[in-house]
What does this fold into?
Amino acid sequence: MNKTILCIGAGYVGGPTMAVIADRCPDYKVIVVDVNVKRIAGWNSEKLPIFEPGLDEVVKRARGRNLFFSTDIVGGIKEADIIFVSVNTPTKTFGAGAGKAADLQYWEKTARDIIEHAESDKIVIEKSTLPVRTAAAMHRILASNSKKLHFEVVSNPEFMAEGTAIEDLQNPDRVLIGGMETPEGQKAINTVVDIYRHWVAPEKIKTTNLWSSELSKLAANAMLAQRVSSVNSLSALCEQTDANILEVSAAMGMDSRIGGKFLKAGVGFGGSCFKKDILNLVYLCEYYGLPEVAAYWEGVVKINDYQQRRFVNNMIRRMFNTISGKRIAVLGFAFKADTGDTRESPAINICKMLLEERACLAIHDPQALDNAKMDLDGVDGVIEYVDDPYEAVRGAHAIALLTDWKCFKELDYQKIYELMEKPAFIFDGRNLLDHAGLYEIGFNVYPLGQKAMSHLN
Ligand SMILES: NC(=O)c1ccc[n+]([C@@H]2O[C@H](COP(=O)([O-])OP(=O)(O)OC[C@H]3O[C@@H](n4cnc5c(N)ncnc54)[C@H](O)[C@@H]3O)[C@@H](O)[C@H]2O)c1
It folds into this structure.
């Protein structure tokens, strides 16, 4: 084996990333460790702990050959030459910066584990998304070891998106590697470049200084989320003016300076990263005395919250100003299609708001029901979690479609109409369905940023 790579954190990033590295680099031994015993057992089983198209095949090819999942963090640290740290970096919920700053306790804990157990020099790679200049703090912590060991910190943020993680990892738009501008820093960068060169074209591997690399990840997520909020804000204006957001998005996207991606109106962005990374950026701007910049980015999050509230308000208004006691079928709970992940899913807030209005919810999702149950655990109200979409809609007054799962397009809406209370409402929070066809069947259809199609006027 060429070198041993350790990844600390076997989550949505650590697991798939290391599986692809092991698959593409058979000359490296890759060990993935986590404190979560259940998660590691899942990675070693037939049913992996996360759902990602293509992940099973990649793991099966490499696991037991040069890919290993373990809870032996100490053993992994001793053995590794290169350590990726991919632990969670949630928004801080306490103390200074609560609600905005990144909570770095898991990161710092891993740094201290590395110092305590390392017996040789190592490259420590920030895979987690971190505030700009975290590497400086890490350098200081790691350099404080009394064993005279040298740890070089490199930033290699992950740009994969859940739902397309394997495709993104196998064919990345770019791989970003940032290091110190010293000979040791450059050497460490080259060591990391060597890994990716196994399958990524050299022109797609970008090396930068540490701070640019750290900030680029926050900036990329902020820019993506900003596009979603921009188009969602315009969807509200479309509904007031009879402009159609699909047409507006298509027209904007045809401008090569703008491009067509991430211009879909919906109930808002979710996922574990966008909100936390923007809030982190906001915090950094405030910290560095840039209140105007902070306010600009904070607006992106505010529009996202506004869009969810607007969606619920519209449901209430259209359903004769009360949804109390009415059964509402919620189709989709994951924050996007092709994942079971529900972290920061707009569905969480929307369901809570519907429950506050005393609606009775029947939630269906092809992958995310277990997570949905955890997210809504302890929330007051009537909630059913339903495996069969046709059972979810039985007796419902309305459907709220919240995730763009393709399978929702393929449902038999004639049958669904017959199973529902009348008048039957569909609120398509992802503009996924054939609205004219639904209207023909008899539904009152409320897309986002488009004219409502109602039989009630
Ligand atoms: N999820 C995404 O789509 C995505 C994409 C790009 C970047 N990121 C970033 O990557 C990082 C990880 O995200 P994730 O979605 O994989 O998180 P996750 O919560 O799914 O996984 C993190 C894992 O780290 C483990 N962990 C925490 N502290 C540990 C410790 N001291 N020792 C060993 N294991 C420990 C946890 O048990 C958990 O399994 C975050 O910083 C996130 O912002 C996430």
About this structure: The pocket of nicotinamide-adenine-dinucleotide is lined by residues 8-14, 34-36, 39, 73, 86-89, 106, 109-110, 128-129, 158, 160, 162, 272-273 (CB under 6 Å). The first strand starts at residue 4 and ends at 8. The first helix runs from residue 14 to 24.
